[in-house]
Design a protein that fits this description.
Layout lengths: L1 H20 L3 H12 L5 E6 L3 H14 L2 E6 L2 H10 L8 E3 L4 H6 L27 E7 L2 E5 H6 L22 E2 L7 H13 L7 H14 L7 H9 L5 E4 L1 H9 L5 E4 L5 E10 L6 H11 L2 H8 L4 E2 L19 E2 L3 H22 L1
Length: about 350
Amino acid sequence: MKKFLKLMMVALLALCLVACGGNETPETTDETTEETTVGGGNLVIYSPNSDALIAATDVFAEKYGVNVEVVSAGTGECLERIEAEKDNPQGDVLYGGLNYANALNKADFFEQFTAEGDDKLPEAYQNTNGVATHYCLDGSAALLVNVEEYEKLGLDINEFDSYEDLLQPELKGHIAMGDPANSSSAWAELTNMLLVKGNAPYDDAAWEWVGKFIDNLNGVQLSSSSAIYKGVVEGEYVVGVSYEDPCVSLLVDGADNVVLVYPSEGAVWLPAGAGIIKNAPNMDNAKLFLNWLISDEGQAEIAKTTARPVNPAIQNTAKEMKPFSEINVAYEDMALCGEKKAEWQEKWTEMFTAAQ
């Protein structure tokens, strides 16, 4: 009996010791768990972005110990893939290509999520639809010209400064343009043209000018944004109707046979968006990435590239980027362009097809 009581007392003492230590152990465990569950694991990103912007994901991956896989494709292809995989998502984030129109028209394929710090961004660039986190500003009107090829046509490069110059007869068939129905950069270029080339924004006169431009394309319409600026550098095309980021990247990398022209009629900068794919397999890391993207650290990484950070307090470091003070900056009606996107894409396709 005494032996039994002794064993009971030992057991009770052990229970008391465990209970007494219980106040500290859960707290420590909770803190450790919270720290170790931030990051790690995988993140699959679909992106139409330039190599420089994609390289920023390496900093995120290293900081949080995340295995990041980037699938590079055009915006149209990325969106088609997301839609095709809607019942079994393979990607987590669309990084780029989620402009105002796509965020509006493709909202059902993305999670409602507002990143931390979104309310600290300029009001015009905040996430108002719950889908797109804006991380940088894309210059939608960038005309890249191969100087040697341009002058071979008997033209003076010093006099090229506008959209109007794209209509020069000598350039017929020598201009590279994307398909606004499938490329976000080409769509942005089209809406920029419609904004500044009519008697009033987006009017019939603007469409008449677009018709003349299509005639001068002479059937050249590329499916890849990168094929445009790379083709100009290689001399395959004389002028590329492109966007600012990759064109400035070429200058930074030492391309000395091209010049970048912002059309004197007006150039638009639009906020580029990223969003979380509906039912993303790596949801926590997807949210973590968007939070990081607009943090001061993420924006500082963007500033090292040739895209302009959406946070105006953080400035680009590349000297090749012309300051806004030297550019005629225009401002697009994003809501109207989003509303009219399908109609205007169809109209472009009809006009382009008819011109052939």
